[in-house]
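Sample A.
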Amino acid sequence: MDRKIALITGGSRGLGRDMAICLAKQGLDIIITYHANQKAAQETLTEIESHSSKGIALQLDARNTKAFGGFKQRLQEELKTTLGSNQIDYLINNAGFGHNATISETTEEQFDDLMNVHFKGVFFLTQSLLDVVADGGGIVNISSGLARFSFSGYSAYATMKGAIEVFTRYLAKELGARNIRANTVAPGAINTDFNKERFESMPQVVEYIAGQTALGRVGESDDIGSVVAFLCSDAAKWISGQRIEASGGMYI
């Protein structure tokens, strides 16, 4: 039986790295993208390969839509030469970055950067890879708990994630005829690079979040990767068009 293949954008660090490792443990071969940190990407590949999976790392600037054609070509070449395939089974749109600013402080440049990475880039990268995703496969888009609940300073970021959730439902609708499932995973407050500086400088924020979470703590990377791995399995074959929040029960 042919091994299945997952492509994870931003898979070299943080949540993306844990997704890659969880999927490798599940028996998939993994392609990750990284923006600039090739060393982190190589370390992730080493971990992937320790689980008897093949790994490939490709550089990608998720905000640069004009580069997607060249990325697709490199992807197809690597698929053929390294993995003996011409398609991927799962696309996980995870690449992104955090930004904290109130509505009054957010500049147009910051807004555009968030838009280009978190929504426009996801939309057009997915569009460019639609014929590379195998029939019967799946797409997982990473949103945020901030699309449901609100913290001051995240309006622009959360707005992009709200758009991703709508986009995911349309993917599920339009790709259903190919038996391709599309779902959203929305992490809550997670202790990764995204929040590390804030959590370390303001430990009271961690205490507050834990107090507002049913399971009594902030999340860790390995709380999310297993959810994505589940959606990229036959166990989730009847789940499509859904938003799964993995937040430990924040604000319920």
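Sample B.
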Amino acid sequence: MAGKSVLQRIDWLSVFIYFALLLIGWINIYSSTFTEADQSIFDFGTLHGKQLFFIGVSFLTIIVVLALEASFYERFSSLLYLISMLLLLGLFVFGKTIAGATSWYDLGFFNLQPSELAKVATALALAKYLSDIQTDIKRQKDQLYAFLVVLIPAILIIPQPDPGSALVFFAMVFVIFREGLPIYYLGLVLLAIVIFICTLIFGPTWVSIIITLTLILVLLLKKKSFRVPVTPMIVAAVVAIVFSLSVNFVFNKVFEQRHRDRFSLWLRLEKDPAKLEKIRKTIGYNTYQSEKAIESGGIFGKGFLEGTRTKGDFVPEQHTDYIFSTVGEEWGFLGTSSVVLLFTFLLLRLVYISERQKNPFGRMYGYGVISILFIHYFINIGMVIGLLPTIGIPLPFFSYGGSGLLFFTILLFIMLKLDANRMKEGI
């Protein structure tokens, strides 16, 4: 086992799924950007030609990632994290604004989005910190430092504004849960989300009444076997009520109008049918057209280059965040199901690979990769089919974009390199 090359030790099932997603994604980018004037798939002046170029660069990057020693990624994880944070800070001075977000550096031939590098660097840095402390993360000091590794890039990205990318970093908290963070933290987060949404729908008064009645009912039914101190329960209820009372202020004063409109559309908060329809035709236009495109595909789809809504440019940004709608229209339910299964198989395979790591760093980094890929996959597809509000994050290996494709590739193949190194060592 130790004498085998990295190509013999690498997990080829994961590599196969990666190539399959790349190929299907590029075919749909070609379809969504195709015009009668296009003469060649190798025309790098077209979007599909540029994506083909990015795919070539990603292949070269894979060679570099696999050629480096596995120990390199652990040894220099903190330095990579520091560099990525400096690049995020530099956006406030040198950043280029695209679609209302100052998230890119204009390099002339290429727009670099440092938040993509930061995802890789944060996954590495978090794995490095958690593996260094070599214990279940029970101490509050350890928990605080681990949360800070995740929160710092998110805090730097939110003002760009790019809430979608910031949300991806919060997903890496699941790595900390895997390593022993008490589950009640997750319960508190889910409870906060429920209170936030319920307050928007029913108002803070009703939510406060429900919290109070629940507390009274629990105290009345409290038995000796139910050993939950009364004071913490009362404090928790008060904090929940205060949080509920603050929701409207945050929603109206902190959120931008476009974010409020997206929540209004998603939760049907607007009671005036005329205003709701106006929001649907503006903020919700992309999702509405995306849903119609997918519905029109039926079971088998309309066929390659035959999507009428795709060819008619009904769905804005269809080659980026809404690329899944092209799959739905031209390849139908069979096509969309195949893409969902490929992503699901990849994630399950990465769980298996992560769990077989004997080096804690490899396992923790693997769960960082899983968290990042899953949140992108789940939110993007949920957004495109109208189950989630529009946030604006790409589908990994699928959506158009050089930075995204390059760093998703690096993210995945670092994991595969760590796994190949495990086999090299005969572990």
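B remarks: The longest helix spans residues 323-355. The chain has a mean pLDDT of 84.
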